[in-house]
Design a protein that fits this description.
- By secondary structure, the chain is mostly helical.
- The chain folds into 2 domains: 32 residues; 312 residues, no CATH class.
- Helices cover 51% and strands 3% of the residues.
- The chain contains 18 helices and 6 strands.
- The protein has a two-stranded parallel sheet with strand order 1-4. The chain has a two-stranded antiparallel sheet with strand order 2-3.
- The N and C termini lie far apart (109 Å).
């Protein structure tokens, strides 16, 4: 029986996942055998400690008991010698029994391990077949088709789109968002400068950037954007130097953020629903930052009452109660027997306490949201908390889910073929995606303003008569109808 490794719940380091390289890595070995393709996955189980097997009552090393002191004192030397020989024979027999038990236990353990490895291999191979049919590699044209296309009308015109493009071209962090860091962007720290600045960050984020189109049919920029009300908070990133000699936090996702996002995106617990993943991230962020603004969450699972009750409780919150108080109300309205979602949200609350000690709480963790429509500014700690919750959610003190890092690795290793964009194509692909989503945001903003203007009452000029509250019948009775003149 394989135990569950209690790993560091922080960012998934490359040392823990030495060859987790996603589809691009798998594509380099198209002819590998079934056993060879599974070898890496099976080797990942070696880090998990083995739980001790249940054994029978232990035998005491002092199980042999000598005769009473009176008998020993009256016995002869030959009798004592006989006892010593008897002890030797008994000890030898006991050691033989121990070796026999150990051999049987070792043989049984090897057999169990072989059976588990075979089952894991079968599941892995089945996953490869399913991925090839249902989640194939994404081409360039498929990736570009996922970007929103501008629609023009009297509110959002081609001139407005051109203005979005011009603003992007003049954006001082444009090259940084595309991962095109140079040595000039690195402040002088007195240390030797790297040959390829932020190379590790770009490699890690490139894998994440290929995961979302393949697994969910949308870009990373759509997920961490307006649709799912998420934004990347780069406050933890190092300072970089811009062309105008000002310094800002590097807006490009850090390696730890990308590795945590990669682990979360490649989980089948979400059942392919980005709404569920985004809702869980939002909840973590709200608890961590003590966000009291109304929560506009969606019903992520129509087969469960959990999110419906959350919607009802959230809609009645005027912005005064914190998430802890609201969650107590949610649980009071739910069944006395908690389901999976309630256990999972309970664990999220516990994981926040574990990852953010009370002594540190409130320091740098206040919500940055100023309005209900503002995005949730997510940091690496939010993703780390959610991974910790996946690792530790349990029932009867037994984990409900497999190790999330192992699950993520299995899913990524099962994806064969190379997806767009490659490392060389990354900057071009992300630029097209950013422009498309910025244009969509601008169009949405302009149309919302136009709609608000149409809905607003037209102010009356001086001398106008307000007829809005008068009855049409009354107006017709008081109206003087001129007599028609006859020729």
């Amino acid at each position: 029986m394989t135990g569950r490794r209690k790993s560091n719940p922080g960012a998934a380091s490359s040392a823990q996942q030495p060859t987790m390289t996603g589809a691009a890595s798998s594509a380099r070995q198209p002819t590998e055998s079934r056993a060879a393709s599974s070898a890496h996955l099976l080797s990942l189980l070696s880090y998990a400690p083995t739980m001790p097997a249940l054994s029978s009552d232990s035998e005491s090393s002092s199980s042999y008991h000598s005769d009473s002191s009176s008998s020993i004192s009256s016995s002869s030397d030959s009798s004592r010698s006989g006892h010593r020989n008897k002890r030797r024979r008994y000890s030898s027999s006991k050691s033989h029994r121990r070796r026999s038990k150990s051999h049987k236990s070792h043989s049984s353990s090897k057999h169990t391990s072989a059976v588990e490895s075979e089952k894991l291999t079968e599941r892995y191979e089945s996953g490869k077949v399913w991925m090839a049919s249902n989640k194939p590699a994404v081409s360039e044209s498929q990736f570009l088709d996922m970007n929103p296309k501008p629609t023009y009308d009297d509110v959002f015109t081609e001139h407005d789109y051109d203005a979005v493009v011009r603003q992007w071209e003049a954006d001082p962090v444009k090259s940084l968002l595309l991962g095109n860091h140079t040595l000039e962007n690195l402040p002088d720290t007195g240390r030797a400068l790297p040959k390829k600045p932020r190379r590790a960050e770009r490699d890690s984020f490139g894998i994440v950037y290929r995961l979302f189109p393949r697994l969910y049919g949308c870009s990373y920029d759509e997920f961490v954007g307006r649709r799912y009300q998420l934004a990347y908070d780069c406050i933890d990133n190092p300072m970089v130097l811009l062309e105008n000699n000002t310094t800002v936090h590097d807006p490009f996702p850090s390696k730890s953020f990308s590795e945590n996002m990669r682990c979360l995106a490649a989980q089948n617990i979400w059942m392919g629903s980005l709404e569920l993943l985004a809702t869980c991230i939002q909840y973590v962020n709200r608890v961590r930052t003590n966000d009291k603004r109304p929560w506009k969450l969606v019903d992520c699972d129509q087969d469960s009452r959990f999110f419906k009750v959350w919607q009802s409780v959230s809609s009645s919150n005027p912005g005064r109660e914190n998430m802890e108080t609201l969650y107590i109300r949610v649980k009071q309205e739910l069944s006395s027997k908690p389901g999976f979602y309630q256990r999972f949200f309970d664990q999220i609350n516990e994981s926040v306490k574990v990852k953010i000690p009370q002594t540190y709480k409130g320091q740098g963790h206040a919500s940055k949201r100023k309005s209900d429509d503002d995005p949730y500014f997510i940091r690496t700690i939010d993703l780390s908390i959610l991974i910790h919750a996946l690792e530790n959610v349990s029932c009867w003190s037994i984990p409900l889910l497999p190790d999330p890092k192992l699950s993520s690795t299995m899913i990524q290793r099962a994806m064969q073929g190379r997806s767009y964009p490659s490392d060389a194509e990354f900057s071009k692909a992300r630029e097209a995606s950013i422009i498309a989503h910025r244009a969509l945001e601008k169009a949405t903003e302009l149309r919302a303003i136009a709609e608000a203007r149409r809905a607003a009452p037209i102010p009356l000029d001086e001398g106008d008569v307000d007829l809005s509250n008068r009855s049409p019948l009354g107006i017709s009775r008081n109206r003087v109808i001129p007599e028609s003149s006859s020729d």
